Amino acid sequence: MKKKAIILLLLIAVVSVAVYFIGSGKVSPADWQSGVLPGKLSTAHASLETNCASCHTPVKGIDEAKCISCHANNTALVQRQPTAFHANIGNCATCHTEHQGANANLRVMNHEALATLGEMFLKDEKASDRLKALVMHGSHPLVSAQEAKLDCASCHGTKDKHQGLFGQDCASCHATAQWTIPAFQHPSVLSMACNQCHQAPPSHYMEHFEMVSMKIAGQENVIVSQCYKCHQTTSWNDIKGVGYYKHH
Ligand code: HEC
Ligand code: HEC
Ligand code: HEC
Ligand code: HEC
Ligand code: HEC
Ligand code: HEC
Ligand code: HEC
Q1: 10-residue mean pLDDT series, the chain (248 residues)
Q2: How far apart are CA 143 and CA 112, in angstroms?
Q3: Residue with CA nearest ligand 1 atom 24
Q4: Total-model pTM
Q5: Is 178 touching ligand 5 by the criterion CB < 6 Å?
Q6: Domain total of the chain
Q7: Which domain holds residue 124?
Q8: Residue 123 falls within a domain, yes or no?
């Protein structure tokens, strides 16, 4: 009984000191349990500045059940392919660190941390297949060894600019910071291999192709796979010998 009372008193003291220092702005990152003080909360959570227990639970540290209790009803987040993992990933503080100051960005993606979580789920018999499937294996030069274990397409398939022509292994060509590839130089307009990298729209495989596309382009004896006869590398709407084609 006595021991519990002392621990409780100590905790109250730690929290009061913490609140005092945070209020005064004299703070540095540290450990909740040892009583050292962290930095200011982000603007989004500023209203919780005097209520540490809204996120922390003594001894346990960050209590993700508390994060979820405030953020559970975010259907837009769970319905969107790249962030659908929120439905069951847990471990909120892995990506959403706090105390980085008022202007800190709470919405930064940490693919390294994600891969580490994925490996953890792989070893956990109780984890769902979906969480296990976050990681796959391979060797990829553009991402770190840890990130290379992720199944990129499971979260980014809807952004695939290549309509599946380049396969599902996005990390064999892409890094995680940006989709653009600075070193990429598009093949020359003289290339005749356009169809190896580009898929024509469905309309090209319907009557529309003969009735409209071929007429606009002024081409007669061509088949769909000969993109280069009608198209250029500027834009799909820049038709050879015609120029910009305005859709209705
Ligand atoms: C909006 C939720 C939230 C509130 C409110 C909050 N914290 Fe935190 N706190 C966090 C997160 C997230 C971390 C990062 C935990 C991690 O790295 O695993 C953290 C980390 C810490 C740490 C570093 C040790 C650790 O557990 O990792 C301390 C110390 C800490 N908080 C103290 C406080 C104090 C004191 C208050 C009240 C003034 C407070 N926090 C309020 C979310 C919060
Ligand atoms: C007492 C309720 C409450 C708790 C507990 C809480 N949050 Fe929040 N959180 C909010 C509110 C309110 C906002 C600002 C409005 C919004 O975006 O919904 C917010 C915003 C956010 C944002 C968006 C920030 C931005 O810049 O757009 C993230 C991410 C977030 N919280 C994650 C967490 C995590 C992780 C935890 C647990 C460590 C947590 N929250 C705990 C209420 C809470
Ligand atoms: C693997 C990293 C990761 C983990 C783990 C994670 N999140 Fe997120 N979360 C993100 C990223 C990245 C975004 C921003 C997505 C965007 O808007 O582009 C986000 C967005 C959010 C938002 C919406 C912010 C806004 O206003 O748009 C909330 C709320 C949120 N997370 C809460 C949580 C909670 C609660 C948990 C734990 C159950 C959690 N997250 C676990 C990476 C993560
Ligand atoms: C569990 C889901 C998940 C996996 C797996 C994943 N990502 Fe992401 N990724 C996200 C989220 C969430 C963001 C933040 C932007 C957003 O919400 O669209 C993001 C952002 C990015 C961005 C920044 C560009 C942008 O659209 O904002 C790139 C590039 C990227 N990821 C590439 C990759 C690659 C390459 C892999 C495989 C090595 C991968 N990702 C694996 C969820 C994931
Ligand atoms: C064989 C290599 C390769 C593979 C595999 C690949 N891509 Fe690409 N991707 C490229 C190249 C090259 C570009 C053009 C980059 C540029 O213009 O900077 C590109 C461009 C993109 C862009 C547009 C970038 C921009 O903003 O202009 C997105 C989005 C994209 N890829 C997503 C994906 C996704 C998602 C996957 C996996 C499903 C994937 N890619 C697989 C090579 C690849
Ligand atoms: C080695 C593969 C490759 C070949 C061959 C190729 N392209 Fe591309 N092309 C790409 C990639 C990768 C991108 C960037 C991703 C995207 O937008 O699809 C791209 C982008 C484009 C774009 C820009 C699309 C936009 O919306 O901005 C056009 C137009 C284009 N290519 C036309 C052509 C034409 C016409 C040919 C043949 C003369 C051709 N390409 C040959 C890989 C290739
Ligand atoms: C006979 C000439 C011709 C050939 C061959 C051809 N196209 Fe087209 N394509 C057109 C014309 C004309 C348009 C614009 C009007 C329309 O929709 O028919 C167009 C439109 C497009 C568009 C834009 C669709 C939109 O909604 O913005 C894409 C993408 C495209 N073509 C890709 C291809 C690819 C990839 C190939 C080769 C596999 C190809 N085309 C072969 C004539 C052609």
Answers
A1: 48 45 36 62 92 88 90 88 88 90 88 83 78 65 82 93 86 89 81 89 95 95 95 93 83
A2: 10
A3: 31
A4: 0.73
A5: no
A6: 2
A7: 111-172
A8: yes
